[in-house]
Amino acid sequence: MVKVLVISLSFILLSVAAFSQKADDIIGKYHLPNKIDVEIYKIDDKYFGKIIRLNDFEDGQTLDINNSDEAKQNTPILGMEIIKNLEFDSQNKQWINGSMYGAEKGITFDLKITEYRKNEIEVVGSKYLFWKTLIWKAI
């Protein structure tokens, strides 16, 4: 009986550990629904992301033509850091307080990652009262 109890408890603990999210889990490369690929990396205790591939983004857009700052409209978007300052909330197991620049509309919005799964992450972008949840696929 004790052996069965120990095995059951061990299984439960291993299951919980397998599904718990750790801060660095999101580090990697992802394919976004708008056809770009980004790489998420860590600097100090925050997470950032840059565009690493365009995949015929917006029918071939390669410059930041939709930026409201005219001086930045000739900036190449390949290599651009578009995700900034995500922080891991260890209590809620989410990455919060970040921002993301959307080159297709030329706007910056709030960003958080609500869930990490082995092959994808669930991302929520918001601006004012509007929000959208997307799935980014791991590359």
Highlighted features:
139 residues; mainly beta; Lipocalin; 1 helix; 8 strands; 47% strand; globular
Secondary-structure blueprint of this entry?
Blueprint: H1 2-19, E1 28-31, E2 37-43, E3 46-53, E4 81-89, E5 94-102, E6 107-117, E7 120-127, E8 130-138
Antiparallel strand pairs: 1-2, 1-8, 2-3, 3-4, 4-5, 5-6, 6-7, 7-8
Explain this structure.
The chain is mainly β and 139 residues long. The protein has an eight-stranded antiparallel β-barrel. It has one helix spanning 2-19, and strands spanning 28-31, 37-43, 46-53, 81-89, 94-102, 107-117, 120-127, 130-138. The chain has one domain (23-138): Lipocalin (Beta Barrel). Helices cover 13% and strands 47% of the residues. It is built from one helix and eight strands, in the order αββββββββ.
Helix content: 10-25%
Q: How many β-strand runs? A: 8
Report the principal-axis shape.
Answer: globular
User: What is the makeup of the main sheet?
Assistant: 8 strands, antiparallel, barrel
Alpha-carbon distance between the two ends: 46 Å
Helix-strand makeup class: mainly beta
Rg calculated over all Cα atoms: 18 Å
Known CATH architecture: Beta Barrel
Strand order of the largest sheet: 1-2-3-4-5-6-7-8
Order of helices and strands: HEEEEEEEE
State the CATH topology: Lipocalin
Total number of distinct structural domains: 1
Question: What do the pLDDT scores average to?
Answer: 88
Amount of beta strand:
over 45%
Low-confidence stretches: 4-19
Which class in CATH terms?
Answer: Mainly Beta
Q: Enumerate how many helices there are, as a single number.
A: 1
